[in-house]
Design goal:
This protein is of the alpha+beta class. The protein is built from 16 helices and 8 strands. The N and C termini lie far apart (about 60 Å).
């Protein structure tokens, strides 16, 4: 059969696409996938004519990378969440304004991408202090090429390699702190600094809520009193705030970041006590954490307050997300229950939770003690029935 109907699922809906296949002496020599049967039949007829010695009409309108970017922008980007959509649209200019836009997709290779990265390193944005690499632009190109392979041409091979990922960095980046979490004493000193140096208590209350629940900043700033049950000591995560990529204005949406992010948080007694005091001060059933005008907080303002506390105490962090990492690590250290920590963070897989909760939290005194007994350095008896030589 020359044109085969294929079924696939996208966003839970059943979709149809058509695969045109060309055979020569019983061996398939080429195939391509299309959204419509008409395009598949047309390509199949042209390809068969070309293999018989005739001209390939389709080659006159070759598929350029700019066409690939346009197809991705029209068919994939509208289904993304708003922050991701805005970020992608902002990054497409580094492809559409580059020499890479005129390269044919069937001729795209590793050398073209190296030239493109060299072109990026001469871009005016390289002088921006916050920019250290073009890793995001390369990642976006990889996403577009993978989309092209899955939905346009299944025979396409993505030419992006690990060498490209290394060459897109042009500044020295300090390695990330291996223990990416706050010690209890550092966290306590940091919270006290915010409480002393900020007249508005909202920033201290946000920091405490995030540190004791592991909730994201977008979830905490969207928390309303209808999601809080002070009698049972629980809070439901059922909405978030999105900050516009360009204007930074907050937008309250009745959804969560992911499906697993909709969860129930168990509040400790200390946090319930703070929330009771906040409830007594707030007569309106609206946001827990808000401006004096009642509107949602700006993320940049919260981040600036947090970072000033980190700088004042000479702490190495510059992010609100450090509180989520700290909660995960301390919770795993206290409970040794990875499943419970995963549920509280709203992660789909335990591997993601392990990235947040550092492995050091699983270490115990018992581990070191048993290892010492195996070696028997001071002449103590080793663990019974434990022959090291037969390991």
């Amino acid at each position: 059969m020359a044109v085969v109907k294929r079924f696939y699922k996208k966003n839970g809906a059943k979709k149809i696409r058509y695969q045109a296949q060309v055979y020569v002496k019983g061996k398939r020599v080429d195939y391509r996938t299309f959204d419509s049967k008409r395009e598949a039949v047309q390509w199949h007829q042209e390809k068969r004519q070309f293999l018989k010695g005739g001209p390939l009409i389709r080659e006159k309108n070759s598929y350029l990378l700019s066409d690939c970017v346009e197809g991705f922008q029209n068919r994939a980007v509208p289904f993304l969440q708003k922050p991701t959509r805005q970020s992608y649209l902002n990054g497409l200019k580094y492809l559409l304004e580059s020499p890479l836009r005129n390269v044919e997709m069937n001729h795209l290779n590793s050398r073209h991408i190296h030239h493109w990265i060299d072109w990026l390193k001469k871009h005016p944005t390289v002088y921006t202090n916050s920019r250290k690499s073009f890793h995001f632009e390369l990642k976006l190109l990889t996403t577009i090429l993978n989309w092209y392979k899955h939905f346009v041409d299944e025979s396409f091979n993505n030419p992006v390699t690990k060498q490209h990922k290394q060459s897109c960095y042009y500044k020295i980046i300090r390695p990330r702190c291996p223990d990416y979490f706050m010690r209890p004493m550092d966290a306590k000193n940091w919270l006290n600094w915010i409480k002393r140096n900020r007249e508005n208590p909202v920033y201290w209350r946000i920091a405490v809520f995030m540190l004791l629940t592991g909730a994201r900043i977008c979830e905490v700033c969207a928390m309303k009193w209808d999601a809080i049950n002070l009698e049972e000591g629980t809070a439901r995560v059922m909405r978030i705030i999105r900050w516009d990529f360009h204007t930074r204005k907050p937008e309250l949406v009745e959804t969560t970041k992911t499906t697993n992010s909709a969860r129930l948080l168990v509040l400790p007694d200390d946090l319930v006590k703070i929330l009771r005091q906040m409830k007594a001060e707030d007569s309106e059933n609206c946001l827990l954490f808000k401006k004096d005008t009642g509107k949602p907080l700006n993320y940049v303002t919260v981040q600036r307050v947090f970072n000033k506390g980190f700088e004042a105490l000479s702490l190495p962090w510059r992010s609100t997300h450090i509180l989520r990492h700290s909660y995960a690590t301390m919770a795993l250290l206290a409970t040794k229950d990875l499943v419970s920590v995963q549920a509280s963070l709203g992660h789909k897989s335990s591997r993601m939770t392990e990235r947040y909760a550092k492995a050091v939290a699983l270490l115990t005194k018992d581990t070191a003690q048993k290892t010492s007994q195996v070696f028997g350095v001071l002449g103590k008896k080793s663990v019974p029935n434990y022959n090291v030589l037969n390991l």
